[in-house]
Amino acid sequence: MARLNFQLQHAKATVTTTFTNFEAYAEAIHDADLDVRLLHPYERCWSIQQREIGSLRLQHGIEGSGLLTQGAVKPEGWAFYFLRSGAPVPLNGKLLVDGSIAVLPPRSEFRFSGRGPVEWYTVYIPSICLAVPDKIPTELGSAGVIEVDGRLIHRIRSALDAAFPAATSRSSDTCSDCVAETIQANLLFVFRELFEERTSSTRPIELKSEVNRKALICRAIELVNDTSAWESSVPEIATMLGVSQRTLLATFQEQLGLTPKTYLLNHRHHLARRVLMNSTPHSTTVAAVAMKFGFFDIGRFAGRYFQIFGEYPSETLRRGS
């Protein structure tokens, strides 16, 4: 086991922020460049606690509604994401459940969709502190979910619960420098052990079919997000990608837990919202924006918009820039 070659700097106090707007919540999340969209509205409340302990950056989030999250990790370090409570989350084609961890290498891309209220932790560790082996196991070479021994999960959870006492209803929301040093040492020890365990043991090699599905979902999302392909139907998108509709459907369901139709419809609503947020009643109308993105039944568009965002499109437009 590598020695802990660091000294603890002063542990910064926990910063807690609560949001009723999911866009503001997404902007507050550290250590990754994110594109976050609202999927399944339950309770329109999101909160995040953040603190730095030495070289580590820790986050504790609570999401009242299901979100579709896509992004990439910052290049300077590794991110580790796992659930504290809530329904399993499909992440890059694998279910993140209790007893597993999402390992996100530097610059790695990830996508996952929450199906309801969820509570989570993340740990961001600079690469220099992890002592990552030269030969990284295949399963740790890209963003993905791995099953972890219950003993390691317990140590990680205990350390993070100690870092965020308010998450466990303890009376204090701070911890002393002595406790913080123990938290940092425990987390670094566990994640280094995780790397050593994966390096020294034989693990399943990623199948070519799994690689193909990951590549296909990336191509599909890039096509929808970066062009006017949102105007196309699901069969037309499948044709553009050179795959059958059945293959496209199976890939979306496996990788995101969504159908292509649901993703496309949700994407169009978010495009409309962005235009409304950056417009005024003097510059455009709800009907004009709706029709621009293929919604020709304005009443149905307004109703669905309200279901997703908790406000009518006219309200978004009135408070636009």
TrEMBL record:
Q: Does the keyword Transcription apply?
A: yes
InterPro entries cross-referenced by the UniProt entry = AraC_XylS_family_regulators (IPR050204), Homeodomain-like_sf (IPR009057), HTH_AraC (IPR018060)
Signal peptide positions (record): none
Q: What is the species listed in this Swiss-Prot or TrEMBL entry?
A: Stieleria varia
Note the coiled coil stretches, chain numbering.
none
Keyword DNA-binding applies: yes
- Name recorded for this polypeptide: Transcriptional regulator EutR
Q: Where does the HTH araC/xylS-type domain lie?
A: 218-319
SUPFAM superfamilies in the record: Homeodomain-like
The source's domain of life comes to Bacteria
Which key words tag this protein in UniProt? DNA-binding, Transcription, Transcription regulation
